[in-house]
Please model this.
Amino acid sequence: MPAVVQLEDIHKIYDSGEVQVHAVRGVNLQLEKGEFMAIMGASGSGKSTLMNTLGCLDRPSKGRYLLDGVDVSALGRNELADLRNAKLGFVFQGFNLLSRTTARENVELPMLYGNRRVSASEMHDRAMHCLEIVGLAQRADHFPSQLSGGQQQRVAIARALVNQPQVLLADEPTGNLDSKTSVEVMGVFQKLNDQGITIVMVTHELDIAHFCKRNLIMRDGRVVSDIQVPDRSIAEVEMNKLKEAETAAKLTE
Ligand code: ADP
Ligand code: MG
Model:
């Protein structure tokens, strides 16, 4: 079985005319089915750029990306959009729910954009099933404004699941939540991962990364640490090393 994700020497250079920003500098990464990885690192280290690459939202300047065995760089715009819709689920920091639309209708949305036509009753059933998974079936008819932040993020997770993606990608999914609610949302991700869903998330909070099984730390566009997390202490040591190195770098500037 091919790796779910395989990145080979990925580079991303943003070129805005006068300045070039080399945001990702030669990242190699392989993810097998069932992994649960946190991408960490200081602001500006390239986490979101790497996530956008993984999510096929942005093309690398150089390197090869195989998603579920498919070479993404060979695909055109529409094929890429189809692949994204079929294989990836996205969760964002700001939930990104449509406000005049119920929880269930929000969850149904990705099925409207899919390649395969889905009947209204199947859409309804699949949306309800995903809301059940995140424990919100009883709130299906509520609008986002009638839900707490944690509940809104759970709706967004249900939406990300509805096309049965290979990989769930989340950029700072707990960034707008208080710590208790964050733990609750991470519990949902853990449950999904226990059921075999591959998850990659960006976070700069160590307590959040602790919920994941693998921690990748980025610095200046490079992966500086990639560890399995048997317990939190190792991740903590790595993050502290990073912080010390950054403090030292600032002092010598
Ligand atoms: P992080 O998510 O770790 O904070 P980013 O991936 O957003 O880091 O950014 C990495 C680097 O690339 C930063 O220096 C940032 O300013 C730059 N960058 C990100 N997006 C763009 C863009 N669209 N155009 C130009 N530079 C960008
Ligand atoms: Mg970011």
In short: Strands lie at 5-15, 20-31, 36-41, 62-67, 70-71, 88-92, 167-171, 198-202, 214-219, 222-228.
